[in-house]
Amino acid sequence: MARQYLLDTNICVFYMRGMFDMNKKISAAGIDNCYLSDITVAELYFGAEYSDHPSKTMGITETFISQFKILPFNDALHIFGREMAYLKSQGRKIENFDMAIGSIALKNNLVMVTDNLDHFSRIRGLEIEDWKISYPK
Fold first, then answer.
1. Phi then psi for 7, rounded to 5 degrees?
2. Which of 6, 93, 108, 111 has its CA 20 to 30 A from that of 71?
């Protein structure tokens, strides 16, 4: 079975901006093997609305999002609570949205694709790849 991936928001932005050959990397992984979280979708919509050209950016964003299956946060709530409690007890808390996205990756047994290694590496058991610097394994 092919590896499957959850794309972090920054990876999606790199793709939409034509950076780091992200289009080739997603293609190499297989677009059917790549997923978005509903948290990432919300962040992408925020970015589009807040941009200098919302109508243009929204069109690009919606076209990008339509290519992927979107996974819900509600299925990963228990993982979120468990991992946030653990990290807080260790004095290593991370941003809530990153924890939510990482929890979705864990719940669905997906490799987390991000260049935010600092935050996501704190989540126990989460496999991470940084496609900004490498191709999918």
1. -85, 125
2. 93
